[in-house]
């Protein structure tokens, strides 16, 4: 490991998972690297093994965002997690949270590092970090994500490092690590263009805190991306048509960077760039980089792509590693408090696109809770971008569950983004720019343009009766505002 552990004194810390995991006991606050990628694998597997052998203990687990099956999936199945923050996407973990067996707090991702530094999350007892190298001076080079790792490393009492042998050393140089001062001493974050580098290519670390180093050959759980379907492609087409029109009318500069959340619509939107001559060269200022970004780089359509992590399929991962020297010229990985910074997002004028579970007729958005109660994944960084973007889109297919659920409802059953944070609502049915409309005009436009035809009459009926019986700025029939949800809970279909 000499080429990876270049700070010689730390080579003596190489050990086995069982020895390293002894530093984690009942009640330990465990802070791990990882932001959809770059999470530790060996220590979680060892903790699960201990639980399966009958050891009774609980830990509080904090990450950067979601992790893979070898962390959230494995640890939730073995019932050793007491607290989990700030975001997850694992099915078993979701079930445990909704059952009340795992305590979970949903957080805006941009705020987490500062909360840890202030002590709001308690002591950073142990930080478990996946790395690709340790520099000659004992500093840490992360793998495919940055997330909150710089703050976790800085404030940890103990550090366990999983040295990944499945990630190439060529990742060195792709990271840009910058930790802002906390109030009242914070200065402006000096980032003025997507391509700007303002920090260091490594995470500063006190090597005396390192208690163990493990060799790891485990890989991240790779994303599986299917070719974009008809509905995501239609939504992407509507968004690009609208933005193109705004730019031609000189209401938006053509050089604004884009952000797109993870998923089908994001991939569909980015794939639309490939065949669009109007968007010759774009910047991406986002949370996560996916497969389609590599395609755009190959086509010469990306000036710079900034994010906190890379989530790639197995095929794209191999391609990225094979030609990493070329992709590094365009890609920058930053701490999430920089990639999601409201200050930077607003300064750069990011065009933000995120996904909703449901939208109500006045433009309020539920991104996180099915039927108002059951957590799906979490708010993630959507609030950071939607509230602060120069132009913000919230997108969703108009129906779900084979038509049994309408994504357009009289009132959302949970509010993550108010009408004041979202500019444009998009479904495959159409698009509504809410910025210059009154709430009543918004309701009429959303019902007409965004709702599925199967639900338009029901929505018109609700809105018309609310308008004439109650009136007001945003007319609602409080006794019927959740009638769509109630029908679904009772019959399995919002229409019946």
Write the layout of secondary structure elements.
Layout: H1 17-21, E1 29-32, H2 42-52, E2 59-62, H3 69-77, E3 81-85, H4 91-98, E4 103-104, H5 112-118, E5 126-134, E6 140-142, H6 149-155, E7 158-164, E8 210-216, H7 230-248, E9 258-260, H8 264-274, E10 282-285, E11 288-289, H9 291-298, E12 302-307, E13 309-310, H10 314-322, H11 324-327, E14 331-333, H12 336-339, H13 342-348, E15 351-355, E16 358-360, E17 365-366, E18 369-370, E19 374-375, H14 382-388, E20 391-395, E21 399-400, E22 405-406, E23 408-409, E24 424-427, E25 430-433, H15 439-449, H16 453-469, H17 483-491
Parallel strand pairs: 1-2, 1-5, 2-3, 3-4, 5-7, 7-8, 9-15, 10-12, 11-13, 12-14, 15-20, 16-23, 20-24
Antiparallel strand pairs: 5-6, 16-17, 18-19, 21-22, 24-25
Helix pairs in contact: 2-3, 3-4, 7-8, 8-9, 13-14, 15-16
Report the end-to-end length measured between terminal Cα atoms: 64 Å
- Principal-axis shape equals globular
Number of distinct helices: 17
Mean pLDDT: 95
List how many beta strands DSSP finds.
Answer: 25
Low-confidence stretches at least 5 residues in length (pLDDT < 50)? none
Counting helices, strands and paired strands, the structural category is alpha/beta
Radius of gyration: 23 Å
Q: Specify the biggest β-sheet.
A: 8 strands, mixed
Strand content: 15-25%
Level of helix content?
25-40%
